[in-house]
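Incident log, support desk, overnight shift.

02:14 A customer reports that sequence design results differ from what the structure should imply. Their input is reproduced verbatim below. On-call engineer (initials T.W.) acknowledged and began investigating.
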């Protein structure tokens, strides 16, 4: 019998779907709603010592959409705008529910502030403390967030400062805006991190208004390089979780562009034990988790997984270095006539940027001689009517080995 209950850092959660630290976790009222809707847990909006609290700009969000569906979000929201005494009041009723939760904290490289905030989080009910060394906007200018997360030594030092101070597990949340995530992950691990969370937002510009010659997020006519999230960043998040899973020996919490139960399982199969979601919850509301839980359970039953843990890292063996990928030079497309809509996307794509091997109108008459085996036809097909199959013998080799002699 499949079950969603997940043990992470010694704490048992009802399911692995958390709401990440962001506007959805900005007050006690929001946190209570997350509990009521059945999420596994949440990460409280990033808190800091009172001297680091600033007001937010308005507005602070911009998006790109395709046919009304979210492709990506950009935000330049800061950490909480509230002082710690306000948070003390907000968290009290949440603590009384007994629901385990994570509190996100931030500070400058002042290690005393990190230690203080770690202690504060523990004393105010957190089961785990998450270190935000990864916000890419507003904070780096104040020597916080990504300013720390881009420097492995600082990541090590702040992680150690909190670890030395608290008895709850410490999870360091990493920025994707670095050259080599494994160096930063290892530095956090060396500093005593019990887990890593990744990714925070990707620094970028989501939109340029070419009529008014300005850029997102259009804060009273001006843009700024800020944090991008949602489906557009998922490949980066998945890549980073896979790289971390292959380079550190501590558990991971996967974040970035999770838009469905399927995406959450993708993160889990690349090595994450829990997942965090922000943008989808902002776009569709907290209610999405109910379906995610049902669909995940159905998938687990169908595929024979009893626990979430059974799926953790299951796809990692499928992530190889390029040199170990196999070459099969007799791989050609095969069209399923029963599925084909005769839309001709494959023929246009192949004629213009492939080998010109699929000719209209004889869609199933593929010229293997001209086919490059690129699979462009298969990826553009809107109904997955094309499968790549081995035809006319088989020749396989790895790049290391080189092609077999004729
Ligand atoms: C509006 C907004 C505010 C955010 N604020 C925080 C924050 O205070 N602390 C933090 O660690 N991450 C913050 N994030 C980053 C998210 O926690 C998350 O890492 C990122 O959005 C990627 O996940 P997603 O694609 O599911 O949104 C924020 C993201 C958004 C969209
Ligand atoms: S695999 Fe590439 S070259 Fe071959 S038919 Fe498809 S698009 Fe054309
Ligand atoms: S893209 Fe797919 S549906 Fe369209 S013609 Fe090609 S095989 Fe048929």
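02:41 Re-run completed on a clean worker. Output:
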């Amino acid at each position: 019998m499949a079950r969603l209950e997940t043990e992470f850092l010694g704490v048992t959660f009802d399911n692995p779907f958390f709401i990440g630290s962001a506007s959805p976790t900005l007050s006690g009222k929001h946190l209570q709603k997350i509990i009521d809707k059945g999420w596994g847990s949440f990460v409280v909006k990033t808190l800091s010592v009172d001297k680091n609290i600033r007001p937010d700009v308005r507005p602070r969000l911009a998006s790109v959409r395709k046919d009304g569906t979210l492709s990506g979000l950009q935000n330049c929201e800061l950490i909480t705008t509230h002082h710690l005494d306000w948070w003390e009041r907000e968290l009290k009723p949440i603590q009384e529910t007994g629901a385990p939760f994570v509190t996100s904290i931030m500070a400058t490289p002042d290690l005393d502030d990190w230690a203080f905030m770690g202690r504060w989080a523990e004393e105010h009910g957190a089961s785990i403390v998450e270190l935000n060394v990864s916000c890419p906007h507003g904070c780096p200018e104040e020597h916080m967030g990504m300013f720390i997360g881009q420097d492995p030594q600082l990541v090590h030092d702040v992680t150690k400062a909190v670890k030395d101070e608290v008895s709850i597990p410490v999870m360091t949340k990493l920025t994707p805006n670095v050259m080599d995530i494994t160096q930063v992950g290892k530095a956090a691990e060396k500093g005593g991190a019990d887990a890593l969370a990744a990714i925070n937002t990707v620094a970028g510009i989501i939109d340029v208004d070419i009529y008014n010659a300005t850029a997102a997020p259009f804060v009273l006519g001006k843009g700024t390089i800020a944090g991008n999230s949602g489906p557009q960043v998922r490949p980066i998040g998945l890549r980073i979780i896979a790289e971390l899973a292959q380079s550190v020996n501590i558990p991971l919490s996967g974040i970035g562009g999770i838009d469905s139960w399927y995406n959450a399982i993708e993160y889990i199969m690349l090595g994450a034990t829990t997942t965090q979601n922000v943008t989808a919850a902002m776009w569709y509301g907290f209610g999405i988790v109910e379906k995610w839980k049902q669909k995940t359970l159905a998938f687990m039953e169908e595929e024979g997984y009893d626990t979430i843990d059974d799926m953790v890292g299951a796809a990692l063996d499928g992530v190889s270095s390029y040199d170990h990928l196999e070459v099969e030079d007799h791989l050609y497309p095969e069209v399923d006539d029963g599925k084909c809509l005769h839309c001709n996307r494959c023929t246009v794509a192949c004629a213009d940027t492939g080998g010109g091997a699929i000719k209209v109108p004889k869609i199933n008459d593929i010229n293997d001689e001209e086919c490059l085996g690129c699979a462009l036809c298969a990826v553009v097909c809107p109904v997955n009517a094309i499968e790549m199959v081995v035809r006319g013998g088989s020749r396989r080799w790895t790049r290391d080995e080189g092609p077999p002699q004729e």
